[in-house]
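Suppose you are handed a protein chain with no further information: no name, no annotation, nothing but its sequence. What can you learn? This example shows the usual starting point.
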Amino acid sequence: MLIVQNRCLESWLLGNRNIYATHSQKLIHPKNQFLLDYTKYYNVSVDCPEKMGRYPDFNTHAQFHGAYLKVLFEAKNTTYSKTRPGDVLKPFYLEQLLTRIQVQPEQLTTFRQFIDFCNIVKSKLPS
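A reasonable first move is to predict its three-dimensional structure. Written in structure tokens, the prediction is:
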């Protein structure tokens, strides 16, 4: 089975809606100007992160998606980097991504394909 990832790992990680600071289920306007700009460009809490383009100040999609993820974490007073991924390694983070692909199956399609593949492999492992 071949799995093609649309964009990068950070694209998938942007799919966790709980990384947005929320109040009464409404997005609070973040104090971080970068986050305001990125959200105006493309709101990953609503639209599929895999389909997000490249912000003009970046050379690649991956650079932009990584920067977007970092400012989302900063708005929650935490950090993310490839070498120190922090909360993205915790079970609750994956649970939120799984919830998103269940609630909105048209989003994060390559992530869903990866999860389906993992479930196939898991089913073939000895108990």
